[in-house]
UniProtKB/TrEMBL annotation:
HTH marR-type domain ranges (all copies): 16-150
Source species: Comamonas aquatica DA1877
Any single GO CC term annotated in Swiss-Prot or TrEMBL for this entry: cytoplasm
Any one of the GO BP annotations: response to stress
Protein's recorded name: MarR family transcriptional regulator
Length: 159
């Protein structure tokens, strides 16, 4: 069986040449940047992500939130329970289908949007990128994520 992948040199196995490590370490740095910005609001980074989705479109099923955030219900449900206990949202069984849970913002959850309004500008400033550079980078990373998440199409092996 022969591989159709291009031959790579020895640098391909060095840490600083790994895309996965660049993304991982950038994610760690981004989360570290957000921590003090969110602490003043009493939020964790995952809670902020949930709120971002609900600020865009309130009244979603847990499954819709999970799809949007790439989280399974086993991860999302405890997070939503903590957010409900903090008073930022409500969870309610769907009247049409008791198996489904609907999530809506509370007035306190809506009020957090105004309090968090400066966060994107702080991140932009700290990134030392222009707005268009950051938008282009975001689009590239989203495109990569979508490609990596797509089902693998395996080509038949050559003999």
């Amino acid at each position: 069986m022969t591989s159709t992948a291009p031959a790579l040199d020895a640098r391909a196995q060095q840490l600083d040449h790994q895309l996965c490590f660049a993304l991982y370490s950038a994610s760690l740095a981004m989360t570290k940047l957000y921590k003090p910005l969110l602490e003043g609001l009493g939020l964790t980074y995952p809670q902020y992500l949930v709120l971002l989705v609900l600020w865009e479109r309130d009244d979603l099923m847990v499954s819709e939130l999970g799809e949007r955030l790439f989280l399974d219900s086993g991860t999302l449900t405890p997070l939503l329970k903590r957010m409900e206990a903090a008073g930022w949202l409500q969870r309610q069984r769907d009247a049409a289908d008791e198996r489904r849970v609907r999530v809506t913002l509370s007035p306190a959850g809506r009020a957090l949007q105004a309090q968090a309004a400066d966060i994107p500008a702080c991140v932009l400033q700290h990134s030392q990128c222009t707005l268009s550079e950051l938008q282009a980078l975001t689009a590239q990373v989203q495109q990569l994520r979508d490609r990596l998440a797509a089902p693998l199409s395996l080509s038949p092996a050559s003999s």
